[in-house]
Amino acid sequence: MFNGILITKDDAGYRAQVQPIDEAVLSEGDVTVSVEWSTLNYKDGLAITGKAPVVRRFPMVPGIDLAGTVIASSNPAWQAGDRVLLNGWGVGETHCGGLAELARVKGEWLVALPGTFTARQAMAIGTAGYTAMLCVLALEKHGIQPDDGEILVTGANGGVGSVAIALLAKLGYQVVASTGRVSEAEHLKALGAAEVIDRQVLAAPGKPIGKERWAGVIDTVGSHTLANACATTRYRGAVAACGLAGGMDFPATVAPFILRGVTLYGIDSVMALLAVRQEAWARLAQDIDIVRLDRITREIGLPEAVEVAAQLLDGKVRGRVVVDVQGGRPPL
């Protein structure tokens, strides 16, 4: 038995609670990991609260991220004692995830924990930071340089947005942060934003094409925000779209794409190939500012995670949340 959050659904309803879990509940896999740290992401909030049908089978351990130590492996790529991390691959949705002391996963889903990071720091980055890095890489590979102009980051107070600002600022880009919490402007500027704008500037229905402003965009919101961002991106600029906090719709026209040559990149972090993941984590090890990362990170234990998950969906959580899964106990 081990401790973790278990989500169940039966005639009595949908429940998520911290409890002892039998190892038989774990999903199939060829590597068993003693999980030390996990995170709370937007998708975890949806899974824990049941506000969206994220969980596809029950019972389920949520948590799309984990970091810890291999304790058993029949996969030749890993052996006991290896330090590893995992992002995505459906864990916490169809496969038991990281918000428990043990996880059993497929070895091909794992990435070696970069030696520059502790497990806690890797989870402070988590899927949010890894996704932010994928977005930055997309803009770089498009050819956008710091001297090309402003980079817009939407949903700036969220996990992806916060890390994206810190990454871009360290790389020398001029970042404009869009947020619904303009009271947090000083916090965003401390992360590296040169300017903070109210999300309402982009959230309402707009024109098919507008005044050119952005050399590039990292969008976590979708809907009208994404459409307006595309409509105001400069000639041959690029937009990296990775989120849908504002909706799944995309009420846009083809005008920015055929009149200005704007490129829209879809960023998938869940099923990305191993080589892509390794590139992103190598760059994070090189480019993340640990001091700025600590500034946006809040630490909680497993017993707090259920309550904080609901706060996250209500927009009451800033930056990143890391979960101390072992809670001070020696790793399993």
UniProtKB/TrEMBL annotation:
Q: Name one Pfam family in it.
A: ADH_N
Query: At the top level of its lineage, which domain of life is listed?
Result: Bacteria
Enumerate the InterPro entries for this protein. Acrylyl-CoA_reductase_AcuI, ADH-like_C, ADH-like_N, ER, GroES-like_sf, NAD(P)-bd_dom_sf, Zn-ADH-like_protein
What molecular functions are annotated in GO for this chain? acryloyl-CoA reductase (NADPH) activity
Ranges for domain Enoyl reductase (ER):
9-323
The protein's name: Oxidoreductase
